[in-house]
Amino acid sequence: PGSTQVTFTLDGLTLTLAGTPSPAGLTTTTIYTYTVTTTGSGSCITETVTGSITVHPNHEITLDTGNDNTQSVCENTAIVDIQYTLSEGATGVGFTTWTSVPAGGGDISTQVTFTLVGQTLTLAGTPSPAGLTTTTVYTYTVTTTGQIGVGNYCEAKTVTGTITVLPDNDLVLSSGQMSQTLCVGSPITPFTIDLSGGATSY
Q1: Please, are residues 70 and 137 in contact by the beta-carbon 8 Å criterion?
Q2: CA–CA distance, 87 with 91 (Å, rounded to integer)
Q3: CA 181 → CA 139, 174, 191, 192, distances in Å?
Q4: Beta-sheet pairing, 82-88 with 59-63
Q5: Cα separation values, 202 from 63, 73, 79, 131, 199, Å
Q6: Three-state DSSP class for 16?
Q7: Three-state SS string across 52-102, please?
Q8: Contact 143, 156 (CB under 8 A)
Q9: How many Å apart are CA 7 and CA 20, to the nearest integer?
């Protein structure tokens, strides 16, 4: 970690090692070994002790090049797989959450799911939220897990993305009959059709 970050202090006959290891550019778990040899008067036998400080890197999670983490799809249409790479101290993921705006658009967490293979995290699936009637933005949040230090995890990283799901277009007969039989010159009986879901015009 560097002799300027973790240092020895001698107070009377008490030697203390303390500090915060912050080695620049650390990307993998590294073991730092220290050796201390006594000095004194005369030619008496010296004593040597050793110890080690194991330093884990903080977590990293990176969206793979060419991947789109802000996709828009129609309901019942598969998203394009979204891949992240875990590195340095990150070895897994946890605290995966989904939120939707507006609320109540139906859950997609069991339809669009994360899979971790090695250090590659993939989000894939087909959003088919029940009862979807309006365009809904689903935001996911993923937090890394991995190497743990003294009493706590090394610094975790969080990434977010959005899946916007557009409802299918619907036409619903609200009154009258669409199929009619009449004599020439006779007016049809008016009927009405309501546009719903993603339909806004015709």
Answers
A1: no
A2: 7
A3: 51, 19, 14, 17
A4: antiparallel
A5: 39, 21, 27, 23, 8
A6: strand
A7: EEEECCCEEEEECCCCCCEEEEECCCCCCCEEEEEEECEEEEEEEEEEEEC
A8: yes
A9: 9
The one-letter amino acid code at 142 reads: V
Type of residue found at 136: T
Tell the burial category of 19 from Cβ atoms under 10 Å away from its Cβ (0-12, 13-18, 19+).
middle
Q: DSSP assignment of 149-165, as one string? A: -SSSB----EEEEEEEE
Q: Which amino acid, residue 82?
A: I
The pair of three-digit structure tokens given for residue 72, joined into one six-digit string: 């828009």
Kindly report the length of the chain: 202
Q: CB-based burial of residue 165 (10 Å sphere; 0-12 exposed, 13-18 middle, 19+ buried)? A: buried
Q: Split the chain (202 residues) into runs of 10 and give each run's mean pLDDT.
A: 80 90 82 90 86 88 96 94 93 86 85 94 94 90 80 79 87 83 89 72 73
Alpha-carbon distance of 141 to 83, in angstroms, equals 14
Specify whether the backbone of 69 is left (phi greater than 0), alpha (psi in -120 to 50) or beta.
alpha
End-to-end alpha-carbon separation of the chain, Å? 68
Q: Are 29 and 50 in contact (CB under 8 A)?
A: no
CA distance 62 to 186: 69
Cα separation, 6 vs 4, whole angstroms:
6
